[in-house]
């Protein structure tokens, strides 16, 4: 019987669980809200139980920060996330207790970055941002995720405040006006009293948000020099936002280093239906399975 | 006869040329001001000519941005640097025309980062910032410099402006109030009319500068997750500055991800006399020589 690889995209608002075949094609998937940890993780276990014994390995792409150091006592934990109930949760421990397969643990955005590389194997370096309830980014240089002792956590760096936004305190519980605090979805609602999807396109809040996201792209460009920066999440799927970000990116970078045509350089994911993390997890699960069987 | 390895630290204010032995010990060195390109580079050539034929290879650590893509038509060039006269200069071409040895080309800060790793080979990831006339940073993850299509250029990312510094426009010719524009040496003089070394320690400008440098350290921490961040340059050699940066770093990061004790994590170079880049260049020249002879 052919093998199946499991993906858990453990996001801030929902869990997406899926199984794929050896060609990394999605065979089945399910999604449920991210409620309290034990309840949510048990649903994931129950889902994957139905695919035993074909299930060969699972990769989990999780909201962070998480502990990915296999030598650490808290390996497999979600650590200091602002997400209520999810700090200090032993995610991999819970899964391993009921599912006896090799597991890989990384961030949701690293899994997404890896998925985009699966689809375009000529890409040697890329950064994947998600702009949603929170902001996160994962990055690849060659086959390696960027990150010395742990994973990138680029959503919480600081940005130059927009002149028309100086009075907004920011909503990050850790840093107030870090990138996530001023540019993630909840910041839009905090400024306007209206949920992002209901804010009119001529509201100045969009250019303010784009100004911050463009700065993140400048920082990623100057720090990591990637071939491409990919933006996932609903906000960036709107053409008007990507165009605002490209325009402000160009003004902010001001030609300091060469970058490709911005329509190519700053992009939405090539993998449709928000499945970048799922495809990336399949590939990472397969890699974990192959490495496990080498040992 | 034993081999010698050459180092050129091509900085914004001076060139430091040196030769080292196979143990990477400095045998001889010289320094001269960075004047116009041809004059300055010819001095470097004349210096290394005196060590032929023992000279086996040279590594150049240069101010940036530079073109390090060997497939590029402008490989070996300093490209868009704000340094007068030095934009679009074919540095490696000039040297190669008169010195027939393998050459390695990287940024001054990458060379410094590599030097610090030579001295502490247990370090698997580090970032090296220099805070001087300009601000630059190089980073290592394993044996690889951080940077997909080219080198890091982290001195020009944007920072949250200090509340008491909002009226200062910044002095970067490309970005005005990027990190370099508000925290490099010339910004101190632009604010106060007094050169940095003559500004009293109780001036508020130091905490403003530290606030920006601390944000750079937060960004490097959250993006690259290094084991250590090293600060070179005269400003950071002063204990009061390093302590100000550590204090503000701690407040800004606010425990979001774990970092080592800050006295270890945020450090000055271990290699004395500003020789980190020289030692790094020796090691990179030796690596270039060995690779050249493998081919």
UniProtKB/TrEMBL annotation, chains A, B:
<keyword id="KW-0862">Zinc</keyword>
<dbReference type="GO" id="GO:0046872">
    <property type="term" value="F:metal ion binding"/>
</dbReference>
<dbReference type="InterPro" id="IPR051804">
    <property type="entry name" value="Carb_Metab_Reg_Kinase/Isom"/>
</dbReference>
<dbReference type="GO" id="GO:0005524">
    <property type="term" value="F:ATP binding"/>
</dbReference>
<keyword id="KW-0119">Carbohydrate metabolism</keyword>
<dbReference type="Pfam" id="PF00480">
    <property type="entry name" value="ROK"/>
</dbReference>
<dbReference type="InterPro" id="IPR000600">
    <property type="entry name" value="ROK"/>
</dbReference>
<keyword id="KW-0460">Magnesium</keyword>
<comment type="similarity">
    <text>Belongs to the ROK (NagC/XylR) family.</text>
</comment>
<keyword id="KW-0418">Kinase</keyword>
<keyword id="KW-0547">Nucleotide-binding</keyword>
<keyword id="KW-0479">Metal-binding</keyword>
<dbReference type="GO" id="GO:0008865">
    <property type="term" value="F:fructokinase activity"/>
</dbReference>
<dbReference type="InterPro" id="IPR043129">
    <property type="entry name" value="ATPase_NBD"/>
</dbReference>
<dbReference type="InterPro" id="IPR049874">
    <property type="entry name" value="ROK_cs"/>
</dbReference>
<protein>
    <recommendedName>
        <fullName>Fructokinase</fullName>
        <ecNumber>2.7.1.4</ecNumber>
    </recommendedName>
</protein>
<keyword id="KW-0067">ATP-binding</keyword>
<dbReference type="InterPro" id="IPR054618">
    <property type="entry name" value="ScrK"/>
</dbReference>
<keyword id="KW-0808">Transferase</keyword>
């Amino acid at each position: 019987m052919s093998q199946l690889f499991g993906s858990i995209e453990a996001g801030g608002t929902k869990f997406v669980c899926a199984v794929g075949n050896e060609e990394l094609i999605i065979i089945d998937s399910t999604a449920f809200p991210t409620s309290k940890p034990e309840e949510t993780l048990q649903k994931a276990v129950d889902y994957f139980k139905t695919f035993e014994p074909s299930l060969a390995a699972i990769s989990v792409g999780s909201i962070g920060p998480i502990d990915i150091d296999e030598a650490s006592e808290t390996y497999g934990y979600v650590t200091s996330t602002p997400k209520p109930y999810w700090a200090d949760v032993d995610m991999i421990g819970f899964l391993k207790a009921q599912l006896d397969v090799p597991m890989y643990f990384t961030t949701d955005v690293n899994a997404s970055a890896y998925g985009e590389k699966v689809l375009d194997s000529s890409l040697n370096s890329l950064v994947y941002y998600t702009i949603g309830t929170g902001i996160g980014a994962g990055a690849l240089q060659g086959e390696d995720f960027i990150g010395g002792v742990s994973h990138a956590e680029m959503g919480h760096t600081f940005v130059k405040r927009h002149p028309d936004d100086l009075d907004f305190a920011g909503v990050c519980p850790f840093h107030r006006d870090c990138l996530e605090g001023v540019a993630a979805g909840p910041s839009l609602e905090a400024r306007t009293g209206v949920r992002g999807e209901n804010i009119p396109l001529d509201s100045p809040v969009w250019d303010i948000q784009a100004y911050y996201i463009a700065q993140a792209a400048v920082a990623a460009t100057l720090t990591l020099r990637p071939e491409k920066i990919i933006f996932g999440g609903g906000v960036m799927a709107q053409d008007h936002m990507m165009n605002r970000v490209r325009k402000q990116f160009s003004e902010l970078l001001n030609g300091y280093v060469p970058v490709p045509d911005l329509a190519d350089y700053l992009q939405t994911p090539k993998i449709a239906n928000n499945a970048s993390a799922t495809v990336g997890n399949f590939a990472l699960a397969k890699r974990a399975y192959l490495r496990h069987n080498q040992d």
